[in-house]
Design goal:
48% strand; eight-stranded antiparallel barrel; globular; mainly beta
């Protein structure tokens, strides 16, 4: 079984840009999303993926991701109930690769970084641009942001 162990942080400084790659355009739609499971289709750059995620338990959850043809992903996007757009940047820090998302559309203004870990208790040195940890705040799950965009929060 595939397991994703991930921590998420808001980004407080724009100094991340100094070490980031060029970024990839990312569009992801949700075929199904509830508290038990999420089925997502994603087009990122020149590749596309179908991903199934299970219920979160702490910072871990089951995850199965498969590369699919971009043409299939484009057709599946038409079936999605909600879609988010963002640019994803990859940043190396202390031997680990961070994924930093700059959201667009109704989530514009939100910048979030995530790091995948090998275990829940793995030691991690945070970059100076990380802010508040939001790993346990479901409002920051991408599936939730697709249904309840950041710009609508009070």
């Amino acid at each position: 079984m595939g397991i994703e162990i991930e921590r998420k942080f808001l980004v407080k400084k724009e100094t991340w840009e100094n070490n980031a790659d060029a970024g990839l355009s990312c569009r992801q739609g949700y075929l199904h999303a509830d508290s038990e499971k999420t089925i997502r289709v994603r087009i990122m750059g020149e590749k596309a993926y179908l991903t199934v995620k299970g219920k979160s338990s702490g910072i871990s959850r089951a995850e199965y991701e498969y590369e699919i043809p971009v043409s299939d992903a484009s057709a599946l996007m038409d079936l999605c109930s909600s879609i988010i757009q963002k640019t994803r940047f990859f940043i190396s820090h202390k031997g680990m690769t961070w994924e930093l998302d700059v959201f667009e559309g109704l989530n514009r203004g939100l910048v979030m970084a995530e790091i995948e870990l090998e275990s829940e208790d793995q030691l991690l040195e945070l970059p100076d641009w990380t802010g508040t940890e939001v790993s346990d705040d479901s409002r920051y799950y991408n599936a939730c942001l697709a249904r309840n965009p950041f710009s609508t929060w009070s």
